[in-house]
Amino acid sequence: MSSPGTAPPAEVMSIASPINLILLSLFVVLVYMQFRPKAPVTLPKSPPPIVFRTFTPTTLLEFNGVDGKPVYLAVRGRVFDVTPGRNFYGPGGPYENFAGRDASRGLAHQSFDEEMLTKDLKGPLDDLKDLDAEQMENLQSWEERFLEKYLVVGKLVAEGDPEAPKS
Fold first, then answer.
1. Is residue 162 part of a domain?
2. Is residue 36 part of a domain?
3. Domain Cytochrome b5 heme-binding, which positions (predicted)?
4. Is the distance from CB of 95 to CB of 65 less than 8 angstroms?
5. Are 74 and 55 a contacting pair, CB within 8 Å?
6. Element (H, E) at 151
7. Residue 112 burial (CB count, 10 A)
8. Containing domain of residue 108, as a range?
Protein backbone atom coordinates (compact mmCIF):
# COMPACT_ATOMS: atom_id res chain seq x y z
CA MET A 1 0.00 0.00 0.00
CA SER A 2 1.13 3.46 -0.51
CA SER A 3 1.61 5.92 2.18
CA PRO A 4 -0.94 8.71 2.56
CA GLY A 5 1.32 11.54 1.29
CA THR A 6 2.81 9.88 -1.79
CA ALA A 7 1.43 9.84 -5.32
CA PRO A 8 0.38 6.62 -6.92
CA PRO A 9 3.04 5.06 -9.15
CA ALA A 10 2.94 6.36 -12.76
CA GLU A 11 1.92 3.78 -15.27
CA VAL A 12 4.41 3.30 -17.99
CA MET A 13 2.74 4.04 -21.30
CA SER A 14 3.79 1.96 -24.22
CA ILE A 15 4.57 3.68 -27.53
CA ALA A 16 2.93 0.75 -29.25
CA SER A 17 -0.55 1.56 -28.03
CA PRO A 18 -3.43 0.89 -30.46
CA ILE A 19 -4.15 4.60 -31.07
CA ASN A 20 -0.50 5.29 -31.85
CA LEU A 21 -0.38 2.36 -34.29
CA ILE A 22 -3.51 3.65 -36.07
CA LEU A 23 -2.08 7.20 -36.30
CA LEU A 24 1.27 5.89 -37.52
CA SER A 25 -0.48 3.76 -40.19
CA LEU A 26 -2.52 6.74 -41.34
CA PHE A 27 0.62 8.89 -41.57
CA VAL A 28 2.43 6.23 -43.64
CA VAL A 29 -0.52 5.93 -46.05
CA LEU A 30 -0.71 9.72 -46.52
CA VAL A 31 3.04 9.99 -47.16
CA TYR A 32 2.84 7.13 -49.69
CA MET A 33 -0.12 8.76 -51.49
CA GLN A 34 1.79 12.04 -51.72
CA PHE A 35 5.07 10.63 -52.99
CA ARG A 36 4.05 7.54 -54.96
CA PRO A 37 5.15 7.41 -58.61
CA LYS A 38 2.58 9.05 -60.83
CA ALA A 39 1.67 7.96 -64.33
CA PRO A 40 3.33 10.19 -66.90
CA VAL A 41 1.06 12.84 -68.34
CA THR A 42 0.29 12.14 -71.99
CA LEU A 43 -0.72 15.03 -74.18
CA PRO A 44 -3.29 14.50 -76.92
CA LYS A 45 -1.75 13.82 -80.30
CA SER A 46 -1.77 16.92 -82.44
CA PRO A 47 -2.92 16.72 -86.04
CA PRO A 48 -0.19 16.63 -88.66
CA PRO A 49 0.93 20.06 -89.82
CA ILE A 50 -0.78 21.40 -92.92
CA VAL A 51 1.56 22.72 -95.56
CA PHE A 52 0.32 25.40 -97.94
CA ARG A 53 0.43 23.94 -101.42
CA THR A 54 -0.71 24.52 -104.95
CA PHE A 55 -3.53 22.33 -106.27
CA THR A 56 -4.97 21.67 -109.70
CA PRO A 57 -8.56 20.48 -110.09
CA THR A 58 -7.33 16.88 -110.49
CA THR A 59 -5.01 16.95 -107.45
CA LEU A 60 -7.72 18.59 -105.34
CA LEU A 61 -10.21 15.84 -106.25
CA GLU A 62 -8.62 13.30 -103.88
CA PHE A 63 -9.38 15.49 -100.85
CA ASN A 64 -13.05 14.53 -100.75
CA GLY A 65 -13.19 12.98 -97.28
CA VAL A 66 -13.51 9.39 -98.51
CA ASP A 67 -11.58 6.80 -96.44
CA GLY A 68 -10.85 9.32 -93.68
CA LYS A 69 -8.98 11.75 -95.93
CA PRO A 70 -9.26 15.49 -95.25
CA VAL A 71 -12.04 17.46 -96.95
CA TYR A 72 -10.88 20.42 -99.05
CA LEU A 73 -12.82 22.71 -101.35
CA ALA A 74 -11.85 25.76 -103.36
CA VAL A 75 -13.52 29.18 -103.48
CA ARG A 76 -12.18 31.74 -105.97
CA GLY A 77 -8.77 30.10 -106.11
CA ARG A 78 -8.33 29.56 -102.35
CA VAL A 79 -8.34 25.99 -101.07
CA PHE A 80 -9.96 25.59 -97.65
CA ASP A 81 -9.63 22.66 -95.25
CA VAL A 82 -13.27 22.10 -94.34
CA THR A 83 -12.55 18.82 -92.53
CA PRO A 84 -13.99 20.21 -89.25
CA GLY A 85 -17.28 20.57 -91.19
CA ARG A 86 -17.10 16.97 -92.48
CA ASN A 87 -20.81 16.49 -91.58
CA PHE A 88 -21.68 19.10 -94.22
CA TYR A 89 -18.96 18.73 -96.86
CA GLY A 90 -17.83 15.13 -96.43
CA PRO A 91 -19.41 11.94 -97.73
CA GLY A 92 -23.13 11.87 -97.03
CA GLY A 93 -23.30 15.58 -96.19
CA PRO A 94 -25.63 18.02 -97.95
CA TYR A 95 -22.70 19.76 -99.72
CA GLU A 96 -20.67 16.63 -100.49
CA ASN A 97 -20.61 17.56 -104.21
CA PHE A 98 -18.19 20.38 -103.34
CA ALA A 99 -15.67 18.13 -101.55
CA GLY A 100 -12.41 18.11 -103.49
CA ARG A 101 -13.79 20.58 -106.04
CA ASP A 102 -14.04 24.28 -106.91
CA ALA A 103 -17.30 25.29 -105.23
CA SER A 104 -17.30 28.93 -106.40
CA ARG A 105 -20.08 28.76 -109.01
CA GLY A 106 -22.39 26.67 -106.83
CA LEU A 107 -21.95 28.98 -103.84
CA ALA A 108 -22.57 32.04 -106.02
CA HIS A 109 -25.79 30.52 -107.37
CA GLN A 110 -26.80 29.21 -103.91
CA SER A 111 -27.08 25.82 -105.59
CA PHE A 112 -25.47 22.67 -104.29
CA ASP A 113 -26.31 20.61 -107.37
CA GLU A 114 -23.69 18.68 -109.28
CA GLU A 115 -24.33 20.63 -112.50
CA MET A 116 -22.74 23.66 -110.84
CA LEU A 117 -19.37 21.88 -110.85
CA THR A 118 -16.85 22.22 -113.67
CA LYS A 119 -16.92 19.01 -115.71
CA ASP A 120 -13.58 19.45 -117.51
CA LEU A 121 -10.95 19.19 -114.78
CA LYS A 122 -8.10 19.51 -117.30
CA GLY A 123 -9.50 22.74 -118.77
CA PRO A 124 -9.18 26.32 -117.57
CA LEU A 125 -10.57 27.34 -114.20
CA ASP A 126 -14.03 28.89 -114.12
CA ASP A 127 -13.47 32.67 -114.42
CA LEU A 128 -16.98 33.44 -113.05
CA LYS A 129 -17.28 36.44 -115.42
CA ASP A 130 -20.92 35.69 -116.22
CA LEU A 131 -22.06 36.10 -112.60
CA ASP A 132 -24.27 39.09 -111.79
CA ALA A 133 -23.81 41.44 -108.81
CA GLU A 134 -26.11 39.46 -106.50
CA GLN A 135 -24.32 36.20 -107.28
CA MET A 136 -20.93 37.81 -106.68
CA GLU A 137 -22.23 39.13 -103.35
CA ASN A 138 -23.39 35.61 -102.42
CA LEU A 139 -19.98 34.24 -103.33
CA GLN A 140 -18.16 36.92 -101.35
CA SER A 141 -20.26 36.26 -98.23
CA TRP A 142 -19.53 32.51 -98.50
CA GLU A 143 -15.83 33.24 -98.93
CA GLU A 144 -15.82 35.47 -95.84
CA ARG A 145 -17.58 32.75 -93.86
CA PHE A 146 -14.96 30.20 -94.94
CA LEU A 147 -12.13 32.58 -94.03
CA GLU A 148 -13.59 32.95 -90.53
CA LYS A 149 -14.14 29.22 -89.96
CA TYR A 150 -11.54 27.25 -91.91
CA LEU A 151 -7.83 27.25 -92.70
CA VAL A 152 -6.60 28.17 -96.16
CA VAL A 153 -4.31 25.27 -97.12
CA GLY A 154 -3.44 26.20 -100.66
CA LYS A 155 -4.42 27.77 -103.91
CA LEU A 156 -6.08 26.35 -107.00
CA VAL A 157 -4.48 26.77 -110.43
CA ALA A 158 -5.38 25.30 -113.80
CA GLU A 159 -3.67 22.25 -115.27
CA GLY A 160 -0.63 23.38 -117.23
CA ASP A 161 -0.19 26.55 -115.16
CA PRO A 162 3.50 27.24 -114.44
CA GLU A 163 2.70 26.97 -110.70
CA ALA A 164 0.86 23.65 -111.09
CA PRO A 165 2.46 20.73 -109.28
CA LYS A 166 4.41 18.40 -111.53
CA SER A 167 2.94 14.91 -111.81
1. no
2. no
3. 55-157
4. no
5. yes
6. strand 151-156
7. 17
8. 53-156
Residues 6+ away with beta carbon under 8 Å from 104: 74, 75, 76, 126, 128, 139
Task: Indicate which CATH number applies to the domain containing 129.
Answer: 3.10.120.10
* Per-residue pLDDT tens over the stretch 96-132: 999 999 999 999 998 888 888 888 888 889 888 999 9
Residue 21 lies in a domain: no
Question: Quick check: 79 and 104 in contact, CB under 8 A?
Answer: no
pLDDT for residue 20 = 87
pLDDT of amino acid 64: 93
Residues of the chain with pLDDT under 70: 1-13, 167
What is the tally of structural domains in the chain? 1
The number of beta carbons lying within 10 Å of the beta carbon of residue 82 is: 27
